[in-house]
Fold Acyltransferase 3 domain-containing protein.
Amino acid sequence: MSISETVSSERLHGLDALRGGALLLGVVLHATMSFFPAQIWIVGDDQRSVWASGLFFVIHLFRMTSFFLIAGLFAHMMLARAGVWGFVKNRLVRIAAPLGVFWGLVLTAIVVVLIWNAGLQGMTAADAPPAPEYDWTNIPLTHLWFLWVLLIFYVALLLLRAPFAALDRSGAWGRVVDGVIAGLIGPWGPFVLGAPLALALWFQPNWIAFFGVPTPDAGLIPNSSALVGFGLAFGFGALLDRRRDLLGRIQAWWPAYLGLAIGAGATALMLAGGPDPRLVPMTDPATKAMTAAAFGVATYASVFAAVALALRFFGGHSRTRRYLADASYWIYIVHLPLVMAAQVLVQDWALSWPVKLGLVVGGVLAVSLASYELLIRHSFMGRWLNGRRVPWRRSPTPALSPAE
């Protein structure tokens, strides 16, 4: 399918596939963490490898920034289609409500797994550290932080869009913005978009470079690097929806984006200490500046490469990809305690780490997909999370994606 056909069709199948893939890759990302050369995760496997941490690095480099770019594009699309109040109602139902309902359940499940693992390690209540005191500055959002940050960006979109629309009745400023967005499509785009992120990373206190953009999973105010990196991607995606014809130009540049992503990504990894990472904050200003610059370019080059490759190779309709994209929201919500439980189960097995990783990822996906099919897709939960309930024994029509 050509990009012109994709843009004019009802769905942007390539971007929808990338959005679902970004969520599903979260299962692989978290599953690798027990196999890092140095223990950084609560569950530490007896098999360790730099290849596991290298796989984590590659996925982490582009995954969530790509997700926020697509979320911005779909948000702008929905806002134009449904209007302000329709958009607000949809986002409250599909994003805010799942965060409110599942956050406490997921956190409880994680704590249960932690207690189970501590018992297996011979620890007792007397060995447990003092319970931390939580407030709005350090509340553990778990992996559901992305829903909270999405809500922040949705509010920002509404607040910025209203005065812009009121002041630009002639469309002159809009044409200027469209021209700027068009000017960013090319190998130079990652350098321009990566510069603000690089600056934010350089100013980020106690920045551990290996992890790139620090995950805003604690506290209600995201760290400045996450706001800049993810917010810029979200905003760029929203403005890109005004010029969806530019998706064809992005697709055409895929070899350049991929080459730049590999080169800048390898440089960032080397400066961060390699796949056996130095998990300490960077202190030397010059080294930190070079590393931040490399991460800024690598992040956006990999995002553009992911978008371009998704448009090129997954632009057509596929029932399997459509199903997985629909299921990815539910899978991401429930996956973390399942991953941790699977890691606890296999941590002492006499198997190589790739086999264990495959068992963890495969087991979690099997359980998650089964629960999606039996409990979510055909029930009221399917309407809540995916926008429609697919009746049993009926050829399904594509559901709305959670980012739309």
